[in-house]
Design a protein that fits this description.
Elements: E1 3-4, E2 7-9, E3 14-17, E4 20-21, E5 26-34, E6 40-46, E7 65-71, E8 74-81, E9 118-120, E10 124-126, E11 130-138, E12 146-148, E13 152-161, E14 165-167, E15 170-182, E16 189-194, E17 201-213, E18 216-222, E19 229-238, E20 242-245, E21 253-262, E22 269-272, E23 282-295, E24 298-304
Parallel strand pairs: 9-11, 10-12, 11-13, 12-14, 13-15, 14-16, 15-17, 16-18, 17-19, 18-20, 19-21, 20-22, 21-23
Antiparallel strand pairs: 1-4, 2-3, 4-5, 5-6, 7-8, 23-24
Length: about 325
């Protein structure tokens, strides 16, 4: 004798299962899995009574799901089980790259990545093993706005001043840093300068922008027997005499990956690796180094800049 078993959760107003069975076996079963709003999540048709329908779906709000159990040839109970909600997502601001550009860098002083910064107007000198996070500084002293006397870390920091970051020694890490340095009068403004004769270390800059104007040396500058390494990944340079300038006495090596230079913004060229006493800094990596240009407020990446191949190459100049 054929009969119909209907299991309904009247309080929730949702029908979880409506199988058609015979007295000895399940001929077929169609299970509709829905959420608390009535939207259908999935539909399963099963002939094997040992398999559970909707076994991977929550059927209600957290703590209000049900588990169906079989006994013999039919369904005997609907048991309430606990559903653990998904973890709360990280609310730390992250900039979503513009679809027109794959440059993962801050595009301005007011980039959304700086939504939670605290503002200051004074210079900061960091001792070794110090860090700064979510900070905005606007000042006009003409001295370095942030000085790292030893190993330090800057994360989501933006600077608007006449001289940006000074690196003395140690392992110095910049992540999501925006430096706008504008020189005046007799300044030799830099976005970042490594200075400490005889000092060593490693400066690693990621997802950062150096924009300089006025009387400048470079967006990133190292010289005078600073002996450390320089690693740049996802970095944008705009303006200045040069974007990046590292003579042979300014470090042991330089690595560039996803580094972009705004076309036409430099007085002399995008970069310069000066020869000192017959040698030049070792270029350890040169990967996806490109020109870039602005179209309104959109940054558009352009042609690749060839890796320097000759012993003493001329700098890349604005085409």
């Amino acid at each position: 004798m054929r009969y119909l078993v209907a299991l309904a959760l009247l309080s929730a107003g949702v029908v979880i299962a409506q199988p058609t069975v015979t007295s000895t076996r399940i001929e077929s079963a169609e299970w509709t899995c829905g959420d608390s709003s009535g939207a259908v999540l999935s539909i399963h048709t099963r002939a094997d009574k040992r398999q559970e329908a909707c076994n991977d779906h929550a059927l209600g709000a957290p703590g209000q799901a049900f588990e169906m159990r079989r006994s013999g040839d039919g369904i005997t109970a609907a048991k309430r089980v606990e559903v653990v909600p998904s973890p709360t997502p990280d609310t730390t601001p992250h900039r979503t790259p513009d679809p027109a550009s794959s440059a993962d860098v801050p595009l301005g002083f007011n980039d959304p990545v700086y939504a939670n910064v605290t503002s200051r107007t004074d210079r900061i000198a960091l001792s070794s093993d110090s860090s700064l996070t979510d900070l905005s500084i606007i000042e006009n002293s003409g001295e370095p706005t942030i000085t790292c006397k030893g190993s330090c870390s800057l994360t989501r920091v933006r600077i608007q001043s006449r001289e940006g970051v000074r690196c003395i020694s140690g392992n110095i890490n910049l992540t999501w840093v925006y430096v706008a340095a504008t020189g005046v009068d007799d300044d030799h403004a830099d976005g970042l300068q490594c200075y400490g004769p005889g000092s060593t270390g490693a400066v690693t800059v990621k997802n950062s922008t150096f924009k300089v104007a006025g009387p400048t040396t470079a967006g990133y500058w190292s010289a005078d027997d600073w002996r450390g390494s320089h690693v740049l990944e996802n970095v944008l340079f705009e303006g200045g005499t040069y974007g990046l300038r590292i003579p042979a006495d300014g470090g042991s090596s330089v690595s560039l990956k996803n580094v972009y230079f705004v076309r036409g913004s430099f007085r002399y060229g995008a970069y310069l690796f000066d020869v000192v006493k017959g040698r030049r800094i070792n270029i350890a990596q040169w990967d996806n180094v490109r020109w870039a240009s602005w179209q309104g407020d959109k940054l558009v990446l352009g042609a690749l800049i060839p890796r320097p191949r000759s012993a003493f190459p001329a700098p890349a100049v604005n085409p």
